[in-house]
TrEMBL record:
This is Ribosome production factor 2 homolog. Belongs to the RPF2 family. InterPro entries: Brix (IPR007109), Rpf2 (IPR039770). One of its GO terms (cellular component) is nucleolus. The keyword Nucleus applies. It comes from Rhipicephalus microplus. Keywords: Nucleus.
C-alpha cells in the first residue's frame, strides 16, 4: 500500500493488489460502500451486484457483437450468423463504433463489463484489412486474448436453402490439422473457439440433440470454417446412419494480428476454486470416456462351496447313485480292515 496524501478533506490513497484478486476486491468495495463507489440502496440493486460478483460456478458466458464504423455487408452478415449460433447468450449492437482494440482496449473493456460479457466480436473493413473480424475474451474485466482474422469465400446461412437448427443448440466442435498443436497462436485460437461455442453445461446428452457440427481445419496458413447439420437416417440396425449437410456459415479465415495473454495470466484465468474440486475417492477412477471404475478387495474364495445351478440333465441316474454308494462302502471297509491288521514287530 502506498502512503496516503491528505489534501484538506480529500484523502488520496493508492492500493496495489494482485490482478487475480482485483475482481473480488472491486466487488467487496461496492458492497462495503467505499467513497466513489455507488452503494446499493435497494434489495434489487444488491442482488444485481451479487449477480455480477464472483461465483464458485460461473454463469454461461455472454458475447457482444460490435459493428465497426466501416463494416461492409459481408462483415455484417458474418457477425449476425455468428450471433445467431451463439444465441441466446449474445447481443448485437447495430450502432457504428470507432473502436480500435489493438491500440486502446479501454472502451472495449467498458462495454464488456457493462453488458456482463466475456466474449466480443468486432467487425471492420478497410483497404489494408478487408473483411476483418476481431474476436477475443476478457478475464476479470480486462483483455485476455484477442485475434484478428480476415475472411474469404464467405457464404451466409441464407445461402443454404435447407431447414436450420433450433436456437440454443449446442454444437459439436471438430479441429483438424497439426498446426492447432504446433503453432502457439493457433493453439490459443482453438481454445478460444471451444470457450466461445461452449454454451451451457449439459449433465446428459440425447442422441436427437446432436444435430450441429462446426469444423475447423488448419492448412496452408488458412483456417476453414464449415458448419453442418447432422441427419440421422435409417440403417436397419439400432444405430442410425449419420449424414452431414452443410448449412453455413462457410468461410476461409486468415490469422492476421494476435494479442494473447502470458502463460502466468492464462494459468490464473483457468484456475478453479478449491471448493469446486471433487475430492478423490480411494480405489475409484474414471476412464477417458467418463465411465466410473472401482476396485474391490475380497477374501480368497473357496470354489468347492460355490452354489452352482443344478440342471436336470446333469442329475445322476439311480444306477449311478447305487454304484457310488457301493464304492463308498467298499472304501470304508478297506479303511477299517487296514486299521484292524496287527503290526509285525519282529520285522
Amino acid at each position: 500500500m502506498a502512503p496516503c496524501q491528505v489534501l484538506g478533506r480529500i484523502v488520496a490513497c493508492v492500493i496495489f493488489v494482485d490482478k487475480s484478486e482485483f475482481n473480488m476486491v472491486s466487488f467487496m468495495a461496492k458492497m462495503a460502500g467505499i467513497p466513489g463507489v455507488v452503494k446499493p440502496k435497494t434489495q434489487r440493486g444488491k442482488r444485481f451486484l451479487e449477480n455480477r460478483g464472483p461465483k464458485l460456478v460461473e454463469n454461461t458466458k455472454n458475447a457482444i457483437f460490435i459493428r465497426g464504423s466501416n463494416a461492409n455487408n459481408t462483415v455484417l452478415k458474418a457477425m449476425k450468423n455468428l450471433c445467431s449460433l451463439k444465441r441466446p447468450h449474445s447481443v448485437f449492437f447495430n450502432r457504428k463504433d470507432e473502436m480500435k482494440p489493438f491500440e486502446d482496449q479501454t472502451s472495449l473493456e467498458f462495454m464488456t463489463q457493462k453488458n456482463d460479457a466475456s466474449h466480443f466480436v468486432l467487425g471492420t473493413n478497410s483497404k489494408k484489412r478487408p473483411n476483418n473480424l476481431v474476436m477475443g475474451r476478457t478475464y476479470d474485466g480486462h483483455l485476455l486474448d484477442m485475434f484478428e482474422v480476415g475472411m474469404e469465400d464467405f457464404k451466409a446461412l441464407e445461402d443454404f436453402k435447407i431447414p436450420k437448427i433450433p436456437v440454443g443448440t449446442k454444437p459439436m466442435l471438430l479441429f483438424a490439422g497439426e498446426q492447432f498443436e504446433q503453432n502457439k497462436d493457433l493453439e490459443r485460437l482453438k481454445n478460444f473457439f471451444i470457450d466461445f461455442f461452449r454454451g451451457e453445461t449439459a449433465e446428459a446428452v440425447s442422441l436427437q440433440g446432436l444435430e450441429h457440427v462446426i469444423m475447423f481445419t488448419a492448412a496452408e496458413n488458412k483456417i476453414t470454417l464449415r458448419s453442418y447439420k447432422v441427419l440421422l437416417k435409417k440403417s436397419g440396425t439400432k444405430t442410425p446412419r449419420v449424414e452431414l449437410e452443410e448449412i453455413g456459415p462457410h468461410a476461409d479465415l486468415t490469422l492476421r494480428r494476435t494479442k494473447i495473454a502470458s502463460e502466468d495470466l492464462f494459468k490464473t484465468a483457468r484456475k478453479q476454486p478449491k471448493q469446486n474440486k471433487v475430492k478423490k475417492k480411494k480405489n475409484i477412477e474414471k476412464t477417458a470416456l467418463g465411465a466410473t471404475m472401482g476396485r474391490i478387495h475380497m477374501e480368497k474364495q473357496d470354489f468347492n462351496k460355490l452354489q452352482t445351478r443344478k440342471l436336470k440333465g446333469l442329475k445322476k441316474t439311480p444306477e449311478e447313485k447305487k454304484a457310488a454308494r457301493a464304492a463308498k462302502k467298499a472304501a470304508a471297509r478297506a479303511a477299517a480292515k487296514n486299521e484292524d491288521t496287527p503290526m509285525d514287530l519282529d520285522t
